[in-house]
Amino acid sequence: MKKFTKIILAGMISALPLSAVAADTKTADKAAPADEMGKGIKHGEYWRQMDTNGDGVISHDEFMAGAEKRFKELDINGDGKVTAEEMKIHHDKMKAQFQEKKAMREEMKAKEGSDKNAK
Hints:
Largest sheet: none
Number of strands: 0
């Protein structure tokens, strides 16, 4: 279980946007640029979710609360353990959400292109 917790924490750390770490604490409400890495949540939005008190930094308590939230998302049956099947279900769910958002973006781009051509 300890090894799994380390893996989850390592994943969360790697998900933190490096640009947000350098953000000026005086502009915490703007925290990090909302760059997208092609999929997933925007960095600035993710930062604001983790920095719950809005002070521009993520404390250990805030980080651990985020880890707990992620763990609960993975622990589908709520037994305090995450199985390979639960990980797969969560992954498939996230993949489906990503595909849906990607299709919506492509549809919007196509519509914008047809609107420009109509002028």
